[in-house]
Amino acid sequence: MTKTVIKFGTDGWRAIMAEDFTFENVRVCAQSVANYLRDTGTSEGGLVIGYDTRFLSDAFAAAVAEVVAGNGIKCYLCAAAAPTPVVSYSILVEKAAGAGIITSSHNAAEWNGFKYKPEYAGSASPQVVAELEKRIDDIQATGAIRRIDLEEGARKGLVEKIDPSAAYFEHIGELIDLPTLKNAGLKVVHDAMFGAGIGYFSRLLSGGKTQVAEIHSERNPLFPGLARPEPIGINLSDLKAAVVDSGAAIGLATDGDSDRVGAIDEKGDYIDQLRVFGLLALYLLDVRGWRGPIIKTLSTTSMIDKLGELYGVPVFETAVGFKYVGPKMIETNALIGGEESGGFGFRGHIPERDGLLAGLCLLDMMGRLGRSPSQLVDYLFSKVGPHYYDRVDVEYPAERRDEILQRVVNHPPTVIDGKPVVRVQTEDGFKYHLADGSWLLIRFSGTEPVLRIYTETSSPERVKRILEEGQRFAGV
Q1: Domain coordinates of the chain in residue numbers?
Q2: How far is residue 91's CA from residue 101's CA, in Å, rounded to a whole number?
Q3: Of 26, 120, 130, 221, which one is least surrounded by beta carbons within 10 A?
Q4: For 253-296, how does the pLDDT look when each residue is reduced to its tens digit (9 = 90+)?
């Protein structure tokens, strides 16, 4: 049988369960982490192990613990499903060497994944990923995996069950004025998308006048009614209806592992993730008065560049993925880092996406300014002008990848929607900048056979036309 090629994408390795994502391959990943920790002399710190609400995620996490403990390394195994940012923060709490997390984030129900977070509690850098993949190749070649039974690991003191939420809540209280927010009288609907964030906003905001209603708030690994647990407009029809029907001030959605956020305004309209990034940056710069660099990926909004100029802070651009954003945040002591997928990291927290903290920041902005979400978007546009965005994801057979790539490489557009292309970036996909400030990006997903086509421009009509042109260029 041909071995599975295990490659980490923008954030971890993901695959379809029972096809490539098997207990055997998860144990290979766990052994690679154990070897990496031992080889780098950090194994004494131990490893936090977390998981989401997907099918068998708890069993896969137990398999990771058996291997890591079998290598004589202490495991801090989460006693229940927990959001990725909560697990990541536990690295700092336990002074651990890193974390292994079983999650496939926003992917469809048949997928699962393995994320590794190093000691700094963010996404693994490309350098760390390369080290893990090198060890994976060696392990697959030799079959050398050490493991012990979970109960035996517990008896030996190598497996300890933890609840990571208490320390996380205490830390969040240092970043956000939770008592004021609890008494702000806001009515919030949280769509947990059947994921690991179930109950977290309720627990953070209970005890005052603010009310939190929840939908999709039970574990269901099939994610019924959702193509995938990704907090983007097409997946949030139930949240839109719940906000309107209940007269809520805002709807917040978190993805399968709660490291991403989506927002619905008081009218039931989706606030796209580029606007959310703009609002969060404006909140920190204008409302909180903070200053510092901002990190953005090339697939996200030019509003960040305009806010950087307006408030006199530098903006750095990276390739797509928090494995690039997080290290740049650490290097520059950035104020905020964000990406188009709805993931945002904050100074004073961890260099990692946190959909829960991002949602709290939006609520805090509403409370401090006394404005509804739609009014906050208007306020943002008063600073940077109107911006419209959308993205099309096109699945393709894996054997077509080279054909699509060659088509894009060999037939570059010089004009898009009647505007000349003035600059092209090829660092991570193909980004075409137009003379009027609009842009089109065509890139392959780093975790699944999907071609992503994005644009940001001056009107909804132009968004539709530019995306259609992008699909024609790529032949999909």
Answers
A1: 13-165, 182-384, 388-474
A2: 12
A3: 130
A4: 999 999 999 999 999 999 999 999 999 999 999 999 999 999 99
Residue 1 has pLDDT above 60, yes or no: no
* Whole-angstrom distance, CA of residue 435 vs CA of residue 458: 12
Taking 50 as the threshold, does the pLDDT of residue 367 lie above it? yes
Closest CA to 243 of 198, 280, 195, 188: 188
| Angle at CA of residue 285, ends 312 and 318, nearest 5° | 70
- 327, 119 contact by CB (below 8 A): no
Where are the alpha helices (H) located in 143-293, listed in sequence order? 150-155, 165-175, 178-182, 200-205, 237-246, 273-282
Q: Which fold has domain 182-384?
A: Alpha-D-Glucose-1,6-Bisphosphate; Chain A, domain 3 (3.40.120)
* 182-384 shares its CATH topology with 388-474: no
65 C-beta neighbours (distance < 10 Å), count: 28
End-to-end alpha-carbon separation of the chain, Å? 33
Q: Which residues pair with 388 in a beta bridge?
A: 457
Torsion of CA 430, 16, 113, 192, to 10 degrees: 90
Which 3 state secondary structure label does DSSP give 407? Answer: helix
Q: How far apart are CA 460 and CA 58, in angstroms?
A: 43
In the chain, count of helices (H) and strands (E)? 16, 21
Query: What are 433's strand-pairing partners?
Result: 423, 439
- For every residue of 51-98, DSSP letters joined together read E-SSTTHHHHHHHHHHHHHHTT--EEEESS---HHHHHHHHHHHT-SE
Cβ neighbours, 10 Å, residue 198: 21
CATH fold of 388-474, please?
A: TATA-Binding Protein (3.30.310)
In whole angstroms, what separates CA 413 from the centre of its chain? 31
* Domain 13-165 coded CATH 3.10.150.10: no
Between CA 440 and CA 457 the distance in angstroms is 9
Task: Report how far residue 117's alpha carbon sits from residue 123's, in angstroms, rounded to the nearest whole number.
Answer: 5
Count CB atoms within 10 A of the CB of residue 152. 14
DSSP helix/strand/coil, 437: coil
